[in-house]
Structures are given as C-alpha cells and as structure tokens.
Model the fold of this input.
Amino acid sequence: MGAQNINLLPPLVESGQFEQLVQSGQTISATTSPYDNSLAVFLSPTTVSGSNSNSDREEPVYFASYDVVPSSERRLFIADTQVIFSMFHGMLESAKSREPSWIQTPEALELMRKFSVDYVNFIKECWIHASQPMPRTDGPLQFSADHYRSLYSCFSLFVVLYLPEPGYEDAPVGEDLMEWLNIHFIEPSTEEGDHLSSLDRPWEDEEFWPYLKRVTLRGLTKASLFFFNTLLQHPSEDLQDLVRTIIPIVESQPRLQNFSAERDFAFASRKWKDKVKAIRIEMDRVPEESRFDDFENWWDSLSDIVGILEGRNPVIQRVCEELGADWKEVCSAWGIFVDSRLRRQDLVDVAAEVLEIMPADPTNLEDMIHSALFSGKPEQALRYASQLDAWLSAHFADVMEPLGLLETDENSESELSKRDEYVLSYAEYLHSDPTQWKITIAYMYSCGDIGRERGDEILVRVPLRLHPSEAPSTPEEAIAQAVKEVSEVCFNYQREAVRRTVCRIAAQTCVRQKDYGLAVSYCISAEDWVSLGRVIDSILDEYVHNGAAEFAKQASKIAPSVQELQSRTVSEAIFVHRLIFAVRYSQIHKYKLEQDFVSAASDIVTLLREEIAPKSWWPVLLCDSVELLQYGSTLLFASSDAAELLSKLEEISIRASQGSGDDYLSVLTRTIKGGGEKEALERLKVVRLALARYFARCTIGSDRHALST
Done:
C-alpha cells in the first residue's frame, strides 16, 4: 500500500555503477530497526567468508524511512482521531453480541453517522487551526492547511453520499450536495459581492452578470435577490418588467427542508417550474433591438439565468464552463434545477454523464476522490485516498466495511480484507514514531490475526526506558512505568502471552541494572520460573564477586517477593526454595552486622538441616560458621547443631573424594581468587578445626557443669 522504494541522497551507489560494485565483492544491504519502520542501509561483502581488502575502510550508513515521522499538528491530529476510532470500534464490538443484521439497522447507521461526523468536525478544526497565522511553539506545520481542507471536503462528501441521516436514504440529494459545494468550494467570492454592491449601477461592471449567474446556480437566494433588485433601476423597461416577474419566483423556489412530505415538495416544484416557463414566454416577446444596453446583451445573460431555473442541462453545463466551474457544480446544480427529486442511487448515472464531458482533474487527488464517490465507486476512492493521505484511506475503509461498501474477493490469496490492508498501511506509517506505540497497536489489533501478530511484535519491542518528559526520571521508575503501561494495554486487548514476554524482557533489563527486586517481581508476574532462577543466581553472584555486604543489600530487595510466592501455588517449587534461600542467607549477614550472633547461628543450622541451602552453598555456610564457632566464651550452637555442621562437612569431604566435589565446592571455589577444589578443601579444614575446638569447649563446659553439681 505504501512506497516500494527509497531514494537516498546523495546516492550510496551512483546510477549505473551497481554491476561494478558487485564485481568488487560488495552489495547494498539493509536492516530494519526493531523499534520503528526505519532502515539502516549500507555496503556489505557479497560473501560471508573470504578476505576483503576494504574491510577496514569506513563506509557510510544511511538511516532512512518509508515515512516522515509525524510531528507538530500532525501528532495531535493522529491522537485525537484515534479516540474516535476506538469509540467506533467499541460500537462494532458490542454489535457482535447482537443479531448480524443489526449493523444495518437505523440505530447502528445513526451511530456510524455520528462517529463519521465527529471525524469531519475534527478535521475542520484542524484545518482552521492550520490556517491561522500564528507563532507555533511545536514547530512549523507538517501538513499545510490546504491538505486538511482536502481531507475535510473528502470526508464530508463521503458522509453526505453514504451516511445520510436515518430515514433520508431515499430522499432527494440535490440540496445536500449544493450545501456541501458551497461550504467547501466558495464561489463567487465575498470580495466580488462587496465590490458590486458598492456600485450605483453594478450592471455596468463586466463581472455583474457572471456573478448573478453564479449565485443563482449555487442557490444563494439572498445574494441573487439583492442584485436582481438593483436591476429595477436598469434603464431598460423590458428588463425591469422581467425582473419584477423573476424576483418572486426566485424567492419562492421550493426547498425540501420546508416540506413535511416529499410528494408536497414534488407538487410545489412542478408548479414552480410552470412559472419559470412563463418567464421564458415573456422573454421571447422582447424585440431583438431592445435586448442590449450600452455595455452588453443583457437578454442573453438573463436567458442563461432563466435556463438555469428551467433546469436545462446544456445551459447549466455551458454556463459552468464559462464561469470556470467544474463537473461538481454541474452535478450539484442538476439535483436542484434539472431533477429536484434526484436520489443518491441515481446520482451515479448523472455523474457518469457529466464526467464524460467534463472529466475530473487526474493531477488532483482530491478531485479524483470526489469523482469516485459521486460515481458510486468507493474502492476507487480508497485507492486515490491512499495516495493523498494514509489516514484518509484507513478511516474511509474502516467505515466503508460495516456499511457493506467493500467487496470481498473470494479468489484473493491475501489473508487480509481490503479494509485491513488500508488500516495496516496507516498503522505502519504510525510505527515510524515509536512513541506512538499505543495508537499504532490500536489500529493493528483491529486487523484480524495478522494485525494482532504485528501488534504483538511492537508491544514486545516497546523501549522500556522510553517515557514522557513528565514520567519518573530514574531508569528503574521509567521501566516500571513502561511495563505498567504495556501491561494495561495487554489487559485491554487480552494479550496475556505478550504481557508475560514483556515482563521477561523487563526482568532481564532490571538484572543488568541490578534492580533485583523488580526483576524478581516481573519473573513472578510472567510465571517464568526458569528466569527467576537466573535472577536468584545473579543475586547470589553478588556474594561471590562483591562480598557479603553488597549481597545482603541486593538480596533485601527481593524479600517482599517471598511472601507473595508463599501465598500462591507455584508448580516450580525448586525456584521458590532458591529465592527463600537467597533472602534467608542475606538475613544471616544482616544479623552479623547487627551483632545478633545467636540468630545468625540458628539460621545457618536451619538452612543446612532443612536443606533450604543448595548443596553448592553448604561449604560457604560452613565457612561463615567459623566466626560463630569461635565467638568468645558463649556457645552459640547446641551440640546437636554443631553435629549437624559436622555431618554436612563429612558429606562434602566424602563426595569430593569420590569425584563429585564440583557439586559441592563450585561456589566456594569461585570465592577463592585463583583457587580450585584443592584450595576449597584446604579452607574447609579450618571449619573442621573450629568444630573440633567447639566440641572440646562443649565437653569442658559440660564437665564443669557436672563437677559443680
């Protein structure tokens, strides 16, 4: 739907030199950005292997995009119209719980008309805003006021022709078309009217009769009556007499809106036409020599006006051509003067006849969209709209589909409907700005399975540190804010698998930043127990690499997660035990720092006896116990507790002698700089010695107790 190629300036390779490039062993490569729809374009070797004499030479890298990133007023336009889009789709979603035929009921059509009118009104506001000569703090306009005027005229015409008020689908369309024409293509200009009205004898001005013809053609009764009244001062009595007859006829032209029933309008229109024919008879009685004034043939000009009122199509078409008007004015006037009961379904034939003689301007996309809509060719209008603005074609298609205006091609190999093609094309344009990800996925998720897949890919790539200027400034807070926003979006669109993936990515990011508390929280939220295990390993590695104090500080951040997990049923209990171990072990070092040695000793024994501690950490715990075994005159361990320590020490020694030392000694080995299993076992001898002395103290203490008794 979008552009198929990108032109780089200056070119990476000059035209006609690509073959030369290939012969030199190079080609042009490109890689897409994971965050938006931009590309990095660069020269690369044609083969992966082999030497390249230019491999060390710096080459330019082009960063290019199929779309210009939305900025200035365009961002506001996109954001505000997406609100209407979401409400429209909320209505369509609720329609799924009703009968399939409900979407074509007056109630549904009225809602669709309402949302479409909302689009029209907002485009109008944007056009007015863009037209104001004012300083713009957010930079110059990205799209001109005339661009938004084009969108305004196209969408309002679509509403006029395809979304009339419920109950008026078969009503005459002429007055609606003329109102649309007068709003969007103002002719004649206000300045012309002001100039002519300032003259004492305006008919002497060469623009007088063209002006009077135009206001008559446009149904601008007030202006036409004003200038007809000036002709009552014209020197020709014949003209004055004719004008006295014409004025009440112009003033009394029937308007559909003034009748409660169409048959009454039709009857009044026929009577009115009879009165117009009477004017023609009177005009023919004016002698040839009396049809001129000192400036021109007033009779011919008045005859054209009467011909318009009579509804003579050749006259209307000729006058339009002479005035520089186009086919739109002819078609609109047709519904007022030629056939006042012209219906929307009959407009197609009228448009075809008029366009055959006065074709639309093929260089003007706005005009081509208008002609397609007049001709009852909505899909053709979509194709032109996509060239004018992806926004227009997407929102056209979005409304056209439930109206049944888009054909379904059963033989098409595409898995996308026509509507989805245009909406996804617009979403890809939005993807050029990664900060607009919420709006982008709103459109993508409305496009079936393919759209949901693309939306998922965007969500899992939302930059976790990308946040508005008013968001928290620290990396951790930014990540938390981004994950919160993504999670809310996933909940709204029922994308649980995506939410879990984003939580896993966030956990990895947090680990790199040593924000282990958030990392564990995200792993639990994602129910990713394997990743939880890796996070715990990273926390435990803090002990190995940075010592007990840093480990205790980092592990304290994950303590709240233990309570959360214990309150849930978790299938992977092994990871819960590892988390509990990390928290409990950090608490031991906290007790030591607080000189609560009794609690520290008790927890070491508990972690070993209940086997909360992994076997690879037994030697570390035993080494930690040395300080407590040697503590002053106070015995911190009961004999049974000391025996438990000895039991674990014996198991480690036996298993190491049997060749399984790595299962027990890997962590302790890593704490010894440049050490291995041998050095680890040497360190455990210190534990054995401390235990021997402790048991001796226990024996002496018990002997003294016996003697004293």
